[in-house]
Amino acid sequence: MSFDNSTLSMVEIETLEHKYLMKYWYFLKFCEEEMVNGLQSMDEIRADWDGLYGGTGNISQFDVGCERIVYALLNGKIAGKPNSNPVSSDLFFEVEDAYIHIDLKSVTTNEGTVRNASGTINDNIGDFNTSIFIGENQNSYQGNMIVNEGKPNERTDLYTPNLPVFYTKSNGDKKITLTYFVCLLNSGVTLKSELISIMCMPNGKLEPHYQHRPLRAGKNPGKTRFNFSQIPTFELLDGNKKRVRIIHKNPEMSDWVKNKLSFYLKNCDPQIEE
User: Fold this and answer.
1) Segment 215-255, tens digit of pLDDT
2) Most exposed among 19, 143, 166, 256, judged by the fewest C-beta atoms under 10 Å?
């Protein structure tokens, strides 16, 4: 008899999304020290590579290393059966009741120390603190997004991702699609990891409930961002369960960074584990 959870109710979908979010959060929280030490391991041999990578355009010295450390932990100890489908997040695997995508988002802040020609602070922390860029191969949420919100030329565009809301196997099995993001904020000033979080973007079958709120128009036409600050909880589940959870925060975080991460620190750092 084939497996089929393609007709799950919205509450059942959120229950499954929450189940795996907590699984990965607990694992990464358990590995927090190992992960942070791994992210800082580049410093031990910095003299051999400093000046040969990054420093131009949008390239950060943290990006490649972050992916290597986090993916090594997940691949080696917790991921399910890998799948070779090229239309996917960086990590894509099958578990007993779902197909799961996990992508890593790395942003570097200069903590407000860099200004442009007009004297305005030029910092990337805005790409991290309330929404994150997502690709069409990283989510299944088709819906309307508001473009140029609040401006005279405001309009609504339909956003269409590449992932299905569920996958159909050649043997007839049907499994729901779940999508997660591990987000890292690193400091170009202290060379430390300021904050690491994990979040779950709703499956596209939840659009009747969340509507346009998960989507925020990106900088380029047709692109979108996951507007997680608008939906920080699993709204259909009891108990104020978080869609976004902090894994690590720098205990020596500067006041400037704390201020910019106020949404995270107030809403995504639960003291009681679910």
Assistant:
1) 999 888 889 999 999 999 999 999 999 999 999 999 999 99
2) 19
pLDDT tens digits for range 87-97: 999 999 999 99
Cβ–Cβ under 8 Å, residues 225 and 132: yes
Strand, helix or coil at 26? helix
CB 35 within 8 A of CB 69: yes
The string of pLDDT tens digits covering residues 69-91 is 888 888 766 778 999 999 999 99
Where do the domains of the chain lie, and which CATH numbers do they carry? 10-267 (3.40.600.20)
- Going from the C-alpha of 243 to that of each of 1, 98, 121, 156, the distances in angstroms are 33, 18, 30, 25
112 residue type, one letter:
G
Report in angstroms the alpha-carbon separations of 71 from 5, 41, 102, 206, 229: 28, 15, 9, 28, 25
Residues 6 or more apart whose Cβ sits within 8 Å of residue 134: 103, 181, 201, 224, 225, 226
Supply 225's token pair. 């961002």
Mean pLDDT of the chain, nearest integer: 90
Sign of the torsion formed by the C-alpha atoms of 132, 263, 62 and 199: negative
pTM of the model as a whole: 0.92
